[in-house]
Amino acid sequence: MNITWLEMKKALFSPTILILLVLFSIFNIFTIISNSYVRDELKIANDIIKKYGETFNDEILSKMQKDLNADVKKRNPQFQDANIFINSMNDEKYQNSTLAEQHEIDRIHLMQLYINLGKGLDERYAKLNIETLKEGTIADFGLTNWAADFVSREFDKLNNRFTEMKETKEYNKWFFASDYRMHSELFKDLIKTIAMEGVILVVLLTALITNYEFEHQTQLITYATKKGRLLMRHKLIASLLTTLLILLPLFGISLITFFTVYDYSGVWTAPITSGLNWEYTWPHITWWPIELWKYLLLTITILVITLLIISLLTFCISTFLRNSYLSWILCILILVSMFVVPMFFSGMPTLLLLMHFNLTLLLLNPHMYFSGVSNLMMFEYHEVWTLVLWGLISLLCVTYVFRRFNRKDIV
Description:
Helix content: over 70%
Order of helices and strands: HHHHHHHHHHHHHHHHHH
Largest sheet: none
Distance between the termini: 27 Å
Number of strands: 0
Structural class: mainly alpha
Strand content: under 5%
């Protein structure tokens, strides 16, 4: 264990690693704070949940509308309806109001926004057709024969899941209004950024630990004996442990800042499939109901495992190149190629499907995990199969590397 710790210290106390970690944390904090101008408006969702509960229906929405109309009438007796009051408000009237009155006007407008969104969900969901999405996906990727049949079967399962959502009205749960795009703000912008920063740090620290002796010209002394060759096992363990230690502050500082700035206290148990979380053409249709807090934990778990696998692959590459920065460049190029290469297999459906089970897609799409409307990542358990596949590949590579290293000259 002492040997492993000594190997870990080489990365943990590396100025390059520490400076990058600090810079990434500062960048993430600055980004979060610079986008926090809507934080006060978001609190209305928590107020609604506290007063009316987490779930809504026609009865709840009707009660909310009556309460809001009463608030408007109390403020200005000439208005009986909140919508009429909002439509009558222009910039001049708003600016001539006191600050307290402006806050009340904003609250009324936001309450009406949430009521209108809730009332329109059933109609919006009724217009969606999974068959249209299936046909479009198959046509867009040029899938034929068994590949088209395979994807078609997955969409049939998704259609059953979507029917279940509509029957149970799973989407009738309060969340931040889709106009704020808070799901994307958290998972697509912040957590994806953290994942990219994690790749840079993990590849660099793993290459640094693996190649330390070769770069400092001490390999002839260190690896001269059979016992010395076993040091590579400690380096591998040290790389994985250091990866976990580096990711802890990288994720921790950014997420603590995010949830300090934005109040999520009322929406932790809201499902990702909430209709108010509908940001793009299609709403989120996950393969099973997933509450926000579970989705966050699963997302972090998937990304941490992905980065551990990348550490294993970097370790293997580093034993061949014996240079930290060359290893870093090659690993980054490989990850970039995983994103680019599938585009060149549009005429080969089998390879096209297989190429979508890659680590880069997991790193770039934390906002689309477990979703049936994410192009060719839509397969049920896509994330699990991708991790299992690349986990096995990385373990086979590590096994080969150890056998090769024990026989290879150290010069």
